[in-house]
Design a protein that fits this description.
- The structure is a single chain.
- By secondary structure, this protein is mostly beta strands.
- It contains two helices and twelve strands.
- Strands 1, 2, 3, 4, 5, 6, 7, 8, 9, 10, 11 and 12 form a twelve-stranded mixed β-sheet that branches.
- Strand 1 and strand 2 form a beta hairpin.
- The chain is globular and about 45 Å long.
């Protein structure tokens, strides 16, 4: 009988306790670019990891100034010659001198039917990106142009090295997943976008950007940076 009273007393105390308030932290959208790269300055592959919200520090020795900003997942339409391509990647989250013109890590795709100033349609994304589709590295239809800003000969990392700089781009990119996704994009207040979250795996080589190379023309190079174990998850909005 004593045990019965004891259990009742414990239950009564438990009921009188205040309810615990559970606060959920804001979930960070799972967008990232991860890989291992081997440039001409290292014998071994080095890990590279750019994720949404990660803080990036860039030191400009000319002005003796360090720039600090978080990364965001963004997309742009850019011209490569007369061809309009869709560029997606991890960009700086500000508009200073090192703004979002080029991603720190990114990919360019030549989707059919792209129009200046307009997002691609949902149908075009679903037809172009599907699980198992493999792109050859490079610039053009059915290809994926890999871009990465590197601290080589240019410590402020202004311009990216890319697949299209090579005489013979090497490598592949394979789509591993695609799903509907609603993204609260922090570029402006209440900026909520509907689109697709796309995951992929890639490997190969990219042409190293060298000081003095024209940025919007392709003077090819045979200085290659190796990439392996690459994987990315990015967001593409549609209209």
């Amino acid at each position: 009988m004593k045990y019965v009273y004891l259990l009742f007393f414990i239950s009564l105390i438990a009921c009188q306790k205040e309810a615990v308030e559970v606060r959920r932290t804001v979930e960070t959208a799972p967008f990232y670019f991860r890989l291992e790269a081997r440039d001409t300055m290292h014998k071994e592959f080095q890990p590279v990891n750019y994720g949404l919200g990660k803080i990036v520090h860039i030191y400009n020795p000319f002005y003796e100034t360090e720039y600090t900003f978080p990364l965001i997942c963004d997309q742009n339409l850019v011209y490569r010659g007369e061809q309009l391509v869709l560029q997606v990647g991890m960009y700086s989250g500000d508009n200073n001198y090192f703004g979002r013109q080029y991603p720190f890590l990114g990919i360019e795709f030549a989707l059919p039917g792209l129009q200046p100033g307009k997002l691609p349609t949902r149908e075009s994304l679903e037809q172009f990106f599907y699980v198992g589709r493999t792109f050859e590295a490079g610039l053009g239809p059915d290809k994926a142009n890999l871009l990465m800003r590197m601290q080589i000969d240019n410590p402020v990392m202004l311009y990216p090295s890319q697949s299209a700089y090579l005489y013979e781009p090497a490598g592949t990119l394979t789509i591993t997943g695609i799903e509907d996704y609603t993204y609260e994009f922090h570029r402006g207040p209440k900026d909520i976008l509907k689109g697709k979250r796309i995951t992929c795996q890639f490997e190969g080589t990219i042409g190293r950007y060298q000081a003095g190379m024209p940025r919007d023309e392709f003077l090819w190079t045979d200085v290659a940076v190796g990439l392996q174990n690459g994987e990315a998850a990015f967001f593409l909005a549609y209209r």
